[in-house]
Amino acid sequence: MPDRRFSSLRRTSLREGVTIAIAAAGVVAVAASSAVSVADDGVSFRIAMVAEQDPAAAPVAAALPAPMPAPLVVPAPLTVPVPEPIPAPEPIPAPMPAPVYPNNLDGWIRQALDVMQANNIPGSYEGIRRNVMRESTGNPQAINLWDSNAAKGIPSKGLLQVIDPTFRSYHVEGTSWDIYDPVANIVAACNYAAHNYGSMDNVNSAY
């Protein structure tokens, strides 16, 4: 028959052992929790210290989103300058048609005046016509065979009764060398009068 005292002693010892084990486990858990807390406090303290010394050096929390990559810069397409259109050249004006002069005294005088103007020879329509009518009555083939010049063998000829030496000396370039040509005769006579009288307008008699 077992000893009841021994059985009671064993139950007491078992309860005490369990109690001791539970207490020991609690102590270990408390110590571990304290160690973790101390460790966390130390890390937080060091982060705070670094942040105070150099804010830029503070570690970024893992919870922050990763930085966005820099946007891709696409270069603008090259533009080729378009040359401005070359302006069309101004049209060249058509040359003025040559004047047409009637083959009569009026036309001869007007053509002679245009030649005289181009060569800076003075004279007017009325001054030329007045002397033509006195010298030849408007006949381009007129010739004087009775005056002193005729006696010398150099008769006066044409509309303004010019002798050959005078015609050759005062001939104007661009006109005919024929002393009977109406325009050439008028221009040469007016050139002579300009040199000796200032203008055919100043001639009122034989010259």
Written description of the protein model:
- This protein is mainly α and 207 residues long.
- Helix content is 49%, strand content 0%.
- It has 6 helices and no strands.
| Beta strand count | 0
Strand content: under 5%
For the largest beta-sheet, the strand count, sense and barrel status come to: none
Task: Look at the structure and give the mean pLDDT.
Answer: 78
Provide the structure class.
mainly alpha
Which value, in Å, is the CA radius of gyration? 68 Å
End-to-end Cα distance, whole Å, is 198 Å
- Per the principal axes of the C-alpha atoms, what is the gross shape? rod-shaped
Topology:
Blueprint: H1 4-53, H2 105-118, H3 125-135, H4 148-151, H5 164-170, H6 182-197
Which labels suit this protein?
207 residues, mainly alpha, rod-shaped, disordered N terminus
What's the short story on this structure?
With 207 residues, the chain is mostly helical. The chain has helices at 4-53, 105-118, 125-135, 148-151, 164-170, 182-197.
